[in-house]
Specification:
The complex is a heterodimer of chains A (about 375) and B (about 325).
Chain A lengths: L3 E8 L8 E8 L4 E5 L6 H9 L6 E6 L2 E2 L10 E4 L11 H11 L4 H15 L14 H13 L5 E5 L7 H17 L4 E6 L2 H7 L2 E6 L2 E6 L1 H6 L4 H6 L6 E10 L2 E6 L2 E4 L11 E7 L4 E3 L8 E12 L4 E7 L2 E7 L10 E6 L5 E4 L12 H4 L15
Parallel strand pairs in A: 3-8, 3-9, 6-7, 7-8
Antiparallel strand pairs in A: 1-2, 1-4, 4-5, 9-10, 11-12, 11-14, 12-13, 14-20, 15-19, 16-17, 16-19, 17-18
Helix pairs in contact in A: 2-3, 2-4, 3-4
Chain B lengths: L12 H4 L6 H5 L21 H27 L20 H7 L2 H34 L2 H16 L2 H12 L4 H5 L7 H4 L1 H26 L3 H9 L4 H30 L1 H7 L11 H11 L3 H27 L3
Helix pairs in contact in B: 5-10, 5-12, 6-10, 7-10, 7-13, 10-12, 11-12, 12-15, 14-15
The chains are: A alpha+beta (about 375), B mainly alpha (about 325).
């Protein structure tokens, strides 16, 4: 089987908590996989283990059907872009690009052609005689990328390659990286970032890590629509999901949730055996709007406005309700005044429920009604509710 | 306030005329305000009051350093002696001492010894110091601490102690000979220049190791890891990345070791006093011998002058080497 696989991989440093704990993950040939999480979640360590720069404490790593756990970095056919770019300051751009092929003793003429080709693709042809110190951040980034591309590896590793760029350049490079990845058809890319926007926009699939453990892996839409835990729910999406305590009860075989003084029936299937318990109710700010525009059957909650953030296309307002502060999305005008009474509403179909003890989702994701959430359009079709 | 001449320049004329883009042209680009003229508030100014604060240290420097050095330079061209008639009645003799120096076979020999001693010391210190520094990087912590401590103690040891230790170890019946089962062989007598060079290397290596250790820690790990992923072998990584990045440090270290070795007078004096014969009579020792053993103070001073010029030449070469790019 081509592609790669983490098989129960652990990485321990001294007596600290494990940097990576029992990571098992398959990555397909040509896939763009993003490892995302807060700093210290083990994403960079996982990447370095793929590169061979770090040896797993336990477990195995497979590439293209071969066990590469003990194979040194140079013989794994991977390229890596470092967060710092790691350009050799004593060499010109040309020599930086030619470094890999040269140490691998490829013919001189072939190297020259390859360097020019790659420089052409990345638009750095005019910089070949410069030293890295004479380049701007974006140019260095391209050189680092070019150095990784020159090898035509079967696996591309990127460790927060865009984090040192300014915002506008980052958005532009994001698109270029995706284009590049599409170009290298058989090359899988593993991309590490702490930025959930980058993760959602770039990844074919996204793996969310926390404290060394893999919490969830799936397409961006799956992570957004069906987060498996509270952490994933609040980490993915911006502004972050509102999470409020509630109480699940089963009334006449139907699940009902009480929270913020309101009560509503859960219109989608729960995991088998779900009994009455304390739950955490998740509502995305984008699913919480002014009550006046809410459809029939929406749950209404009264509160007072607090801080309003204008984003241009909408306003995200903090609404102080009895027992919780919720962020809701309001139309861009009229701008609500502070400390005014307001009623907001959400559709029970858009609610996420988590067990308050285990933090895990109690939605039944094997049920056809929720298995379809991978494609957003299919989310909660009307026929399946009530 | 606004009527300063030249300040309200007509906007756009400079840039519009297609002049070379200088600061003035940039300032007059359309839509940009003209840069005000006159003294800048943030201009650097000389503060006369600072002279008063500099006087004490300037006086100390002059009395204890500059005047003696100039005076010693002058002494090189006189007939001053330590004892005898010329100790009291001495005068400027022009190029007399220079002629003597030109015909002095011992001076020529001493010069060759000095160059050999410096070359050997510098090569030994840099290579061993760098090797130790690199080994230390990957050593287990206890090994690193113990070995590093020993090397640094060797470096901190006074020249007299180091010299006596090496003398006792390498002379007939010394430690090395006994350990090798050659109790009667007198290494110091047989290969005097080699032994004193080794002693000097031994006493300077700790310094080089510390300097290289710090420089190696400053090389970003990413660079070497990136090369590792490219499948560069250990020697390739060393030659193409580590060495070029260490170059400025190596040049500085070479210069320092050169100067420290030339000043390491006590070490050789304790071990051989320049002997046997003149076999270890490097310039600093020869200068000392002429001045204080043969009483030719002036001639000794002239040899000292030659030594200073030699150091200056080394310095100039190293500074050039550190500037040029590979």
């Amino acid at each position: 089987m081509p592609g790669l696989r983490f098989e129960h991989v652990w990485k321990l440093y001294g007596r600290q908590a494990p940097a990576v704990a029992d990571l098992s993950l398959d990555i397909a040939e040509g896939e763009f996989l993003v490892l995302v999480g807060a700093s210290g979640c083990g994403k960079t360590t996982s990447l370095r283990m793929l590169a061979g720069l770090e040896r797993p404490s336990y477990g195995r790593i497979w590439m293209g059907g071969k066990d590469v756990t003990d194979i040194p970095p140079g013989r794994r056919d991977v390229s890596m872009v470092f967060q710092s770019y790691a350009l050799y300051p004593n060499m010109t751009v040309y020599k930086n690009l030619a470094f890999g092929p040269r140490v691998r003793r490829e013919p001189r003429e072939h190297i020259r052609r390859r360097v020019e080709e790659v420089a052409e693709i990345l638009g750095i042809g005019g910089l070949l005689d410069r030293h890295p110190g004479e380049l701007s951040g974006g140019q260095r980034q391209r050189v680092a990328l070019g150095r990784a591309m020159i090898r035509e590896p079967s696996l591309f590793l990127m460790d927060e390659p865009l984090s040192n760029l300014d915002a506008a350049l980052r958005v532009q490079m994001r698109a270029e990286l995706i284009r590049l990845h599409k170009r290298l058809e058989r090359t899988a890319t593993v991309y590490v970032t702490h930025d959930q926007v980058e993760a959602l926009t770039m990844g074919d699939r996204v793996a969310v890590l926390k404290d060394g453990s893999l919490l969830q892996v799936g397409t961006p839409a799956e992570l957004y629509d069906a987060p498996a835990t509270v952490y994933v729910a609040t980490f993915i999406g911006s502004p972050a999901m509102n999470v409020i305590p509630g109480r699940l009860s089963i009334v006449g075989g139907r699940p009902r949730v009480a929270c913020l003084g309101a009560e509503f029936e859960v219109p989608w299937p729960l995991r088998p055996g779900a009994a009455a318990r304390d739950v955490l109710v998740g509502i995305r700010p984008d699913d919480l709007g002014p009550a006046a525009r809410a459809p029939r059957g929406a749950v209404r909650i009264g509160g007072r406005t607090d801080v309003c953030e204008q984003t241009g296309i909408a306003i995200y307002a903090t609404v102080n309700c009895p027992g919780a502060a919720l962020v809701a999305r309001l139309p861009r005008s009229p701008v609500p005044a502070a400390n005014q009474p307001i009623e907001v509403a959400f559709d029970p179909r858009d609610v996420h429920l988590f067990d308050s003890r285990t933090q895990a989702s109690i939605a039944d994701r094997s049920h056809p009604a929720l298995a379809g959430v991978a494609s957003p359009a299919a989310a909660a079709p009307p026929g399946t509710t009530k | 306030m606004t009527a300063r001449p030249g300040a309200p320049a007509p906007a756009g004329t400079g840039a519009g005329a297609g002049e070379a883009p200088g600061p003035a042209a940039a300032a007059q680009a359309p839509g940009r305000p003209a840069v005000p003229q006159g003294l800048r508030r943030d201009a650097e100014r000389f503060q006369w009051g600072s002279l008063a604060l500099l006087v004490p240290s300037a006086a100390l420097l002059a009395v204890l350093f500059i005047i003696p050095v100039v005076y010693a330079f002058y002494l090189g061209f006189t007939n001053l002696q330590l004892v005898g008639i010329h100790a009291v009645d001495w005068h400027f003799t022009g190029a007399e001492n220079l002629r003597r120096l030109a015909g002095d076979q011992v001076f020529r020999y001493s010069m060759e010894l000095t160059l050999a001693f410096i070359a050997g010391s510098v090569a030994g210190v840099v290579i061993i110091g760098l090797a130790l520094a690199m080994l230390m990087q990957t050593a287990l912590a206890p090994v690193r601490i113990v070995a590093g401590g020993i090397v640094i103690v060797a470096w901190m040891m006074p020249a007299i102690t180091a010299g006596m230790t090496w003398y006792a170890s390498t002379t007939a019946g010394g430690t090395f000979g006994t350990l090798l089962g050659l109790a009667n062989s007198d290494f110091l007598h047989r290969e005097p220049l080699l032994i004193v060079t080794l002693a000097n290397i031994w006493s300077q290596t700790g310094f080089a190791m510390m300097v290289f250790g710090a420089a190696l820690r400053n090389i970003p790990r990413d660079l070497l890891e990136s090369a590792q992923i490219e499948n560069a072998s250990r020697p390739q990584r060393f030659a193409r990345i580590t060495l070029p990045l260490l170059r400025p440090t190596i040049v500085t270290t070479v210069l320092l070791i050169t100067l420290i070795s030339l000043a390491n007078f006590g070490l050789i004096y304790v071990m051989t006093q320049g002997g046997p014969g003149n076999a270890t009579d490097i310039l600093p020792l020869y200068s000392y011998q002429q001045a204080f053993q043969f009483d030719n103070l002036a001639y000794g001073a002239l040899i000292g002058n030659a030594l200073v010029i030699l150091c200056a030449i080394f310095g100039a070469i190293y500074v050039r080497a550190s500037r040029s790019r590979a």
